[in-house]
Amino acid sequence: MKALAKIHALTGHPATLEALRKGLSYYLKNLFDTDGLPKPFSRAPRLTVYKRELYDCAECINLCLLLRDRFPRLQTTLETVVREIPANWVKRDGSFRSRRLHLGWDNVPMHRWGQAQMFRSLAFYLRGSIKARAQRDQRSDVSDQKAASGNQMAQFIQK
User: For residues 101 and 89, is the Cβ–Cβ distance under 8 A?
Assistant: First the structure.
């Protein structure tokens, strides 16, 4: 889906948008648990001892960041997952837990897998948040300037 998102961004082809719509529908219906967090399988292929992986959360953040402008409902998914990470996945030493087990956690930091991907995902999320805040502030400054000039005009007319 990330590749389709990039292709659609470059081409704007309607078929890629439709494929993304269908893929997202499946993704959100089958690969999230009742808490709104990603799960590794729609149906586990075998007995697994874990219920969630750091890597799946990181990829969810990446996908939401790529697609939230075209699919606004992903903003809620993004916020749910981003809130979960500092609340439950960050250890005291600053590394991330690797897996949420059915009982407890796998705390072994796997730097070439989930750790690096999560750092990257959170960095892109932070960059996007800073950019959005700057745009809001800029719009606010412009509307403040318009309001000020409107007030000046009203004062001038009253004189």
Answer: no
Ordered DSSP codes for 29-83: HHSB-TTS-B-S-SS-SS--SEEEEHHHHHHHHHHHHHHTTT-TTHHHHHHHHHH
pTM of the model: 0.82
Q: What pLDDT digit, counting tens, does each position of 109-144 carry?
A: 877 778 999 999 999 999 999 998 888 888 876 565
Helix (H, G, I), strand (E, B) or coil at 94: coil
**Domains in the chain with CATH codes:** 2-158 (1.50.10.20)
- For residues 127 and 82, the answer to whether their CB atoms sit within 8 Å is no
Q: Which residues pair with 50 in a beta bridge?
A: 101
